[in-house]
Design brief:
Helices cover 83% and strands 0% of the residues. It is globular, with a radius of gyration of 18 Å. It is mainly alpha-helical and 249 residues long.
């Protein structure tokens, strides 16, 4: 179990490195917010389509249920956002309007769910073969760095303090240990339902990118920065794609 705890530290906490580097120069980060949002949108979509969904599909003989789970994740967060917006008081001085008020908590919730499943994956890999524990943890840490940069940028832009951002992301990262513990104790359940859980999280990430980040970029940038934003978006996709190709190649 001590080895699993070490692998959980590697998989969850090491992935925060990119976000912490971003916070080290917060003033510069705010000047390139649109580009960071585009990078984050690209990385969220790439993680869904190049990592989570393919991994889930490979685990099952019939992938239909995986895509239904992705649709359910997308729909569930749409419902949660609409319901939550009923309880947010719109600040007339907030230039982004009510649409972006739910973005920070949605990002943190989605990241927490993802980290929990990362812990499950680490535990399942280790149980299947102890030699797979470390490579799995390193792979998880590597592909989450670009995603964490996008998430830190979102929270920073929404007015969160550095301390609050770090605290929220540390707590979110710790959910990986919960995933390790739960998977270790409830192995049969997670072996059977892990593909559906991965599919559901992929749907959540697509929702955040498509309904939150991309509309926010359009609202902020208008008709400016078209090529730079497109380049940042593609860079987010390529960064995730390159890491996944390297790790699985």
């Amino acid at each position: 179990m001590s080895s699993l705890i070490l692998y959980g530290l590697i998989g969850s906490l090491f992935s925060l490195a990119g976000g912490l580097l971003l916070l080290a120069n917060a003033a510069f980060a705010k000047r390139i917010t649109n580009l960071l949002f585009a990078f984050g949108a690209g990385s969220f979509i790439a993680i869904s389509f190049l990592d989570l969904l393919p991994e889930a599909v490979e685990m099952v003989e019939e992938p239909h249920a995986v895509f239904l789970a992705a649709l359910a994740g997308f729909a569930a967060f749409f419902a949660l956002e609409r319901l939550s917006m009923k309880h947010f008081r719109k600040d007339p001085t907030h230039v982004h309007g009510a649409h972006s008020e739910s973005l920070p908590w949605m990002t943190v919730v989605a990241d927490t769910a993802h980290n929990f499943l990362d812990g499950v994956v680490i535990a399942l890999a280790y149980i299947a073969n102890p030699l797979l524990g470390l490579p799995t943890a390193l792979a998880i840490a590597a592909h989450e760095v670009p995603q964490e940069i996008g998430e830190f940028a979102i929270l920073l832009d929404q007015g969160w303090s550095k301390k609050k951002i770090i605290a929220a992301n540390l707590l979110s990262a710790l959910s990986a240990f919960l995933g390790i513990g739960v998977a270790y104790l409830a192995l049969p359940f997670f072996e059977a339902y892990l593909p559906l859980l991965l599919g559901g999280v992929s749907g959540v990430f697509v929702y955040i990118a498509a309904s939150q980040l991309i509309p926010e970029i359009h609202h902020r940038a208008g008709h400016t920065e078209a090529y730079r934003i497109l380049a940042a978006f593609l860079l987010g996709i390529l960064a995730i794609g390159a890491v996944i190709t390297f790790l699985h190649g």
